[in-house]
Amino acid sequence: ESASIDTSTIKLSIDLGYAFSIYSFYFKPYAKLGYKFYADDTSGWLTEKYHSDDFFYGAGLRLQYRAIYADVAFDYFSTDFSDETESINADYNYTQLGVMVGYKF
User: Fold this and answer.
1) What b/e string do you get for 6-34 counting C-beta neighbours within 10 Å, with b at 16 or more?
2) How far apart (Å, rounded) are the C-alpha atoms in residues 22 and 24?
3) For the CA atoms of the chain, what is the radius of gyration?
4) I need a labelling partner for 13 at 20 to 30 A (CA). Which of 21, 36, 37, 97 fits?
5) Which residues contact 84 (CB under 8 A, 6 or more apart)?
6) pLDDT on residue 80
7) What pLDDT score was predicted for residue 72?
8) 36, 58 contact by CB (below 8 A)
9) Which residues on neighbouring strands pair with residue 77, listed in sequence order?
């Protein structure tokens, strides 16, 4: 029998970096540090609900040309899980990729 897992993550973060200017282009490599709220609801052969909150970190690169920009970021966090009887213990490591394109007014 299979299981279905629904997960959601809410993250609040700050980035630290410096924007380099080359002609009309700006490049900003940065490091991220933040706090995440994670929820995992499993149904099927195993029915469990798991919630955690903890720090996460990451790195990214923002590119800007005039008013158009693109941002690529990698975030990393880990969490561990055990059921109520502690018969199942697991450690999970997550890497998330974010890509954003925007227009700066």
Assistant:
1) eeeeebebebeeeeeeeeeeeebebebee
2) 6
3) 18
4) 21
5) none
6) 75
7) 97
8) no
9) 94
Using the structure block, give the residue that is written with the tokens 């966090």: 77
Mean pLDDT estimate for the chain: 86
Q: Single out the residue of 3, 8, 17 nearest to residue 96, CA to CA.
A: 8
Question: Model's pTM, two decimal places?
Answer: 0.75
Site of tokens 């018969």: 87
* Closest to 39 in 3D by CA, of 53, 23, 19: 53
| Between residues 27 and 45, the one the model is more confident about | 27
DSSP string, 58-96: EEEEEEEETTEEEEEEEEEEEEEEE-TTS--EEEEEEEE
Question: Residue 17 corresponds to which tokens in the numbers above?
Answer: 């970096």
Query: Residues 59, 71: contact at Cβ < 8 Å?
Result: no
What are 69's two structure tokens?
Answer: 């920009």
pLDDT (0 to 100) of residue 4: 76
Tokens coding 79: 């969490």
Residue 24: DSSP 8-state: T
